Amino acid sequence: MAPQARRAGTALETEETLAAIVLADSFTQKLRPVTLERPKMLLPLVNTPMLDYTLEWLAINEVQEVYVFVCAHAELVQAHLETAGWTTSRKFRLHVVVSTNCVSVGEALRVMDGQDVIKSDFVLVAGDVVSNMRLSGAVTAHRARRAADKAAILTMVVRGGLTAGHVRRLGDTPTVAVLDPASQRLLKFEDRDDAPAGAGDTTPARRRRRHACLVDAHFFGERDIVQVS
């Protein structure tokens, strides 16, 4: 959303609203036939739909505008948001965006871009994220990086320190990330295979840092981003 002005004493300060896009669709069929009648984001974890954990986490991090993007089982997701009280919550302003024709994250983001409702930095997160991470560090780092380099439009948050076995038990595919240690620029990010760490990029080896067994946490982007994670 557009920056909001507020008066503090005699000085007029500008506060940028932090928004989030929650993808309430996994765009996969990994959990079929379980998800034939209920979307993954509404499957219970300790008797609580996973979508509720994601929304509560955003509220704790003081996100003010939340756009829940719904594709499959749109009626069920909308009904849950209403009965659970999220549509009338004072924690943030919640908007439901329905598009039943999307088959990928990229298409979902193109729909959101076409609606022109995101005006500044935003958090992009899957609707089944269970986390207690504080977003303030990622937000601060992203804005500082973008202030120094206008081409830095995306900050990806990943969880490291996992073995390949741990990642597979979580249901994910082990990945490899190659970073420039000086700028932290992401040079390579892909599913783990037998390719050498630097394959596909021309950065000198001494400037590459390889991180294996990461889990993509699907987080932070800026309005001009076209496709994230």
Provide an overview of this structure.
- It comes from Prototheca wickerhamii.
- GO terms for molecular function: guanyl-nucleotide exchange factor activity; translation initiation factor activity; translation initiation factor binding.
- This is Nucleotidyl transferase domain-containing protein.
- The protein has 229 residues and is of the alpha+beta class.
- The protein has a domain at 1-132: Spore Coat Polysaccharide Biosynthesis Protein SpsA, Chain A, CATH 3.90.550.10.
- The protein has helices at 50-60, 74-83, 105-115, 136-148, 164-169, and strands at residues 4-8, 11-15, 19-23, 44-45, 48-49, 65-70, 93-98, 122-126, 154-155, 158-159, 175-179, 186-191, 209-216, 220-221.
CATH superfamily of one domain: Spore Coat Polysaccharide Biosynthesis Protein SpsA, Chain A
By CATH reckoning, the class of one domain would read Alpha Beta
Based on the structure given, which CATH architecture of one domain is correct? Alpha-Beta Complex
Shape: globular
List the strand order in the largest sheet. 7-6-3-8-14-9
Instruction: State the oligomer.
Output: single chain
SSE order, one letter for each helix or strand? EEEEEHEHEHEHEEHEEEE
- Please summarize the sheet with the most strands: 6 strands, mixed
Number of strands: 14
**What portion of residues belong to β-strands?**
25-35%
Distance between the termini: 22 Å
Number of helices: 5
Helix content: 10-25%
* CATH structural fold name of one domain: Spore Coat Polysaccharide Biosynthesis Protein SpsA, Chain A
Low-confidence stretches: 1-14, 193-229
Summarize model confidence as the mean pLDDT. Answer: 74
Question: From the alpha-carbon coordinates, what is the Rg to the nearest angstrom?
Answer: 19 Å
Structural class label: alpha+beta
InterPro entries: eIF2B_epsilon (IPR051956), NTP_transferase_dom (IPR005835), Nucleotide-diphossugar_trans (IPR029044)
Pfam families: NTP_transferase
Protein name: Nucleotidyl transferase domain-containing protein
GO molecular function, one term: translation initiation factor binding
